[in-house]
Amino acid sequence: MRSRLRSRPGFALAIALAAIVIIGAIITGMFFASTQEYRISRNSAMQARALTAAEYGLNRVTTYGQWNPVWNTDTNGLIATQSFLPGDGAFDTVRVTKLNSGMFMLTSTGRVGPASGAQARHRVGGLVTLLIPQINMLGALTTRGSAKIGGSSYLDGNDTTYAGWNCPPPGAGVAGLSMPDTTKITTSGCSGLSCVAGSPKVSQDSMAGKDSTYFNFGPQLSWTDLVGMANKTFPASTTLNGLGPTIAGGSCDTGNQNNWGDPLHTDPTVSSCQSYFPIIYAQGNLHLSGGVGQGILLVEGDLTVTGGVEFYGPVIVKGSMSTTGTGGHFNGGVMAANVDLEQSTLLGNAVIHYSSCAINKALAGVATPIFANSRSWTELY
């Protein structure tokens, strides 16, 4: 019996082809979607690594010892570019721009990825200020013990500036000598305090008798903090002769213990020590004889000066200060805490000039960076 079913050639093949096309489209879509997901995940991970690298650079410069104190006293503008390798294949570049005397803009750019493959870049910025020590210099010489002045010594509380230091105009002066009890002044060859100048010549100030005047330097810094920041430390009973700037390998030789900067600007080159303002700490008595230096001088014991020393910046002595013979010249100010109420003696041709410029330059030269209190961090992409 002849079948009534008619043949339908190609129907099954068409369905199979359609199914293959549909399945292929689904597989292609899934492959495309998974590829996109992979790329998005990879890009997100690379962006996160780039951001981490950028923040790493900011932290290295501000927190982990990569800040160069020379920047503190440098001129405004782009002053440095530093590069870092965080260790995960990323690369970071930090540009340091000085905005003014106490403000810096840091731009950190983190990069990840090979030169011929996928790459990511993230840029962040940080606004940085300086944590600058604050010293309450009451007079050219501030002491809380007794004081003996005479000979050719001279105390000058009038504000002094120096050529080549880019100093602002002189500000208000201070007393030539400040102490809590002016009846403890002894003079020798200084009739009528003719060897003292200032506004006034001598000031009786209760602050000169307080520990905070000598050992607290703002709300976040103390004597202990400054000692911990010292660039140069000397044992007790040290005698130093012939201080002076030195150059080694084309740059300022800061490792030389007798190199305390170049206040006289004897070397005009970019490798000079003009911007080097170290913190010098003596663990006990210190005897200086001859030479020049700048920075902050901290003496745990007594300070004896002979041989025409010239020092620019604040000097803080826990014990007493004594100058004899050719004495020394101090430009900035001297504070002798006299923890045992000893006598500070200035004889010979010792000279102490008050200078807000020398003090501020020295304090700025040792300042440490901190992020500004508000809106200090931003993404720059």
Features:
381 residues, 18-stranded parallel β-sheet, alpha/beta
Q: Mind sketching the topology for me?
A:
Elements: H1 11-62, E1 77-84, E2 91-100, E3 103-112, E4 120-131, E5 139-143, E6 146-150, E7 154-156, E8 175-179, E9 185-188, E10 196-197, E11 202-204, H2 211-215, H3 223-228, E12 232-234, E13 238-243, E14 247-248, E15 251-252, E16 279-282, E17 286-294, E18 296-299, E19 303-306, E20 309-317, E21 321-323, E22 328-336, E23 343-346, E24 351-354, H4 356-365, E25 368-371, E26 377-379
Parallel strand pairs: 5-8, 5-22, 6-9, 6-23, 7-10, 7-24, 8-11, 12-16, 13-17, 16-18, 17-19, 17-20, 18-20, 19-21, 20-22, 21-23, 22-24
Antiparallel strand pairs: 1-2, 2-3, 3-4, 4-25, 4-26, 14-15
Explain what this protein looks like in three dimensions.
It contains 4 helices and 26 strands. The chain has 3 domains: 14-41; 68-132 and 368-379; 139-365, no CATH class. It is elongated and about 135 Å long. The model has no long low-confidence stretch (mean pLDDT 87). The chain has helices at 11-62, 211-215, 223-228, 356-365; strands at 77-84, 91-100, 103-112, 120-131, 139-143, 146-150, 154-156, 175-179, 185-188, 196-197, 202-204, 232-234, 238-243, 247-248, 251-252, 279-282, 286-294, 296-299, 303-306, 309-317, 321-323, 328-336, 343-346, 351-354, 368-371, 377-379. By secondary structure, the chain is α/β, with parallel strands linked by helices. Helices cover 19% and strands 36% of the residues. It has an 18-stranded parallel β-sheet that branches. Strands 1, 2, 3, 4, 25 and 26 form a 6-stranded antiparallel β-sheet that branches.
